[in-house]
Design brief:
Shape: elongated
Number of domains: 2
Structural class: mainly alpha
Oligomer: single chain
């Protein structure tokens, strides 16, 4: 039994010796492997840090580019606004020049010759009328008459519009003055004078914003006066000359109503 135990101890001792010899042999390789692993880890971390810095740098560069683009777009927007404002100003100036030319081209009544005993030097020169001042005066006269109409002062409105038409027969607000003169007479139940005013707009101002309303008023007054042929004529004229307007649609409804009434009455 003792021999067996001695043999086992000897075997274990030999194994331990062999294990120690193996570790001593492998130790440098293991240590070097650990060093290499650490270096590779440090290199990976450095590369990762460098990559992150590059990404951040690219993001900053993109942000700068985006800011520059926004500034460029804003500059272009402001430039376009300035160009549009300049174009609008030029358009207003051209329109005003046309109005001035229209005022200046207004026919002037011939002046009677001065008596023989009066020298040319003693005749005072004709006053120079500033077109801008004349247009402003016409606008003020028109506005005063219009406000009188809207306030129910119909006599004052009629007087104001008539005075404006006498002084500015070819003015900028002439077409509207004729139309509102018709409305003033209509407010006083004077259909005849109202029709004369509306007819003047319908026959002389085809491009006026009051042309279609004037035709509608003529048709409605004719219908009220039981002058159905005239009413149909003006309704049809409104549809023909202003086919896409809302008033044309109103005229179509009125014509349909008149047609139905004529059918029911056996006409």
């Amino acid at each position: 039994m003792a021999a067996v135990l001695l043999s086992a101890l000897l075997s274990a001792g030999c194994a331990d010796n062999k294990s120690n010899l193996s570790w001593e042999t492998d130790k440098p390789a293991v240590e070097q492997a650990l060093v290499n692993l650490g270096q590779r880890q440090e290199q990976a971390e450095a590369e990762s840090k460098s990559s992150t810095e590059q990404v951040n740098a690219k993001l900053l560069a993109l942000a700068d580019q985006d800011a520059e683009l926004k500034q460029a777009v804003e500059a272009l927007t402001q430039r376009v606004k300035k160009l549009e404002a300049a174009a609008a100003a030029r358009s207003r100036i051209a329109t005003r020049k046309q109005v001035y030319a229209k005022v200046e081209a207004k026919p002037v009544k011939p002046v009677k010759s001065a008596p023989a005993h009066v020298s040319e030097e003693s005749v005072p020169p004709a006053p120079v009328v500033d077109p801008a001042v004349q247009i402003e005066a016409e606008k003020n006269a028109y506005t005063a008459a219009y406000l009188a109409l809207k306030s129910g002062r119909f006599d004052e409105a009629i007087s104001g519009f008539n005075k404006q038409l006498d002084q500015y027969a070819q003015g900028e607000y002439t077409d509207q003055a004729w139309y509102w003169l018709g409305e003033s007479h209509l407010a006083q139940s004077d259909g005849e004078k109202a029709m004369l005013a509306f007819k003047y707009v319908a026959d002389h101002y085809p491009d006026s914003v009051k042309h279609a309303p004037a035709l509608l008023k003529l048709a409605q007054i004719s219908e009220m006066k039981k002058q159905m042929d005239k009413a149909i004529h003006y309704y049809n004229r409104l549809i023909r000359e202003h086919p896409d307007s809302s008033l044309a649609e109103q005229a179509r409804v009125s014509l349909s109503r008149l047609s139905t009434a004529n059918t029911e009455s056996g006409q």
